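Methods, example record. To illustrate the input and output format used throughout this study, we show the complete record for Integrase catalytic domain-containing protein. The sequence lines were provided to the predictor; the line carrying structure tokens was produced by it.
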Amino acid sequence: MEDMWIMDFGCSKHMTAHRKWFSSLNPVSTKEYITFEDNGQGKVLGVGSVSLSAKLSLREVAFVRNLGFNLVSVSQLLGEGFEVHFKKGACRVLHAEETLVCSLLPFGQVFRVDLTSVFGPARCLVASPSADIWMWHRRLGHLSFDLLVRLSSMGLIRGLPKLRAEKDLVCHPCHHGKMVAASYTPVSQVMTSYPSELLHMDTVGPARVASVSGKWNVLVVVDDFSRFSWVFFMEFKDEAFGFVRDMVLRLRNENHKAMRAIRSDNGGEFKNSHFENFCRDLGLEHQFSSPYTPDSKLKQRVAPLRMQGR
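The corresponding predicted structure is encoded as:
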């Protein structure tokens, strides 16, 4: 029965219990159940798309546990713009422009979808290319389906068979891999009131090329108010505390107004007991930027300053 689809007037949506039918399947976010005629229930495990023939693709098909038959909902077909005609023991599904989509054959007291065109001699023409293009899509590092089809038609890759892409092919890992976080809106207004009130600092390294003095790491400090920058070259990143300590003490002597805070990332060269004790003794607030937010850090400013420092 798993290879048979029954036309049903009573069910509210298309449904099947067999995973193999789905060309795409998404899990449901909430618990849903389908109530059977005997008042039993089957859990909805997901919703996806099923292609019954070259012309008939079912959308929003429920993947239901313990379902005895594959069911095609007449009401859902009508809602999707199809027409269902019954006449003298025959049933046909038509497009709105009255082109034949599929025929249904009598099966006892019900009608089953005629899948001869799919699972007869033409089965390899429908199922095989889709499976092949998925395999080659993954094998070639998730290359786009359109480019795969073009390469196969041009014969540019030895061993690549002729591929044919279907319209509803969606690779979810590709979508997830191409997602990027939205950029932050640039803040043009200065939030501080005087120089040295807030200092931003970050380290970069080790670099691929050493500086003139043979140093591989860089400490960059930027004043929030004036955008004046200091660049210190270091052999190791743990030297950052010494440079920051000397600079902060010098700025406190040069400026009449008190320094309020320093801001860094969560790197170990900043987040340690030396920095904590130093900030506590001087009454400085040590602020940390949010993880995985490069827009809020100094990475874009480090590269040109490092080149100038060489």
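Annotations derived from this record:
The longest helix spans residues 123-139.
The first strand starts at residue 5 and ends at 8.
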